[in-house]
Amino acid sequence: MNPRIAQTSAPVLPALAERWSPRAFDDAHAFPENALRGMFEAARWAPSASNTQPWRFILARRGSESFAKIEATLMGFNQMWAGSAAALIVNIAELSDAEGKALPWAEYDLGQAVAHLSVQAQSEGFHLHQMGGFDRAAISESFELEARFQPISITAVGAIGSADNLPEALRERELAPRTRFELDEIVIVRD
Q: What digits encode the pLDDT tens for the residues 20-32?
């Protein structure tokens, strides 16, 4: 049995059971032109409050100036592995519209869009790892984002590489069994 496939208590879609967050990416893998289009199409069709679609994405392929800018903002362990991903994606929430009206569900809606993107990517054989450890102000400055656009997370995407290429502390985490809370710990039933 593959230890990376989630052992679920009820059947789920294969793309969900097989999804995990690797740190070992194949640093020789590159995406052909338009290979990531399906991921972004899935994100585009995510639900959003009042159909505001308050998400934006910066896609940067390894070797590009934009990739280097994003990689330079990564913090901690993220700097040790994320540069091997074939691409980095900055996930951005539009916190207010052009007239200044707050979009209070923007971050939630962005999360749904990123989840759709993730499931589509997994179903296409790509792997992703979400990161929160980065300098948001540096991203905003590097890409000249208006104040109403807030970088929320960064996604590394690519093909799986060898865990042997990771530093020992990260290798252990990469190979450790997957765990989750049990359903009765997260679902509150009130009848």
A: 999 999 999 999 9
What is the full DSSP assignment across the chain? --TTS---SS---HHHHS----S-B-TT--PPTTTTHHHHHHHHTS--GGG---EEEEEEETTSHHHHHHHHHB-TTHHHHGGGSSEEEEEEEE-B-TT--B-TTHHHHHHHHHHHHHHHHHHTT-EEEEE--B-HHHHHHHTT--TTEEEEEEEEEE-B--GGGS-HHHHHHHHSPP----HHHH-----
Q: For residue 16, is pLDDT > 60? A: yes
Average pLDDT, the chain: 94
For 58-81, write each residue's pLDDT tens digit: 999 999 999 999 999 999 999 999
Domain segments of the chain as ranges:
14-158
Q: Token pair 């059947």 is at which residue?
A: 11
- Give the domain 14-158 fold: NADH Oxidase (3.40.109)
Tokens matching residue 190: 């009130």
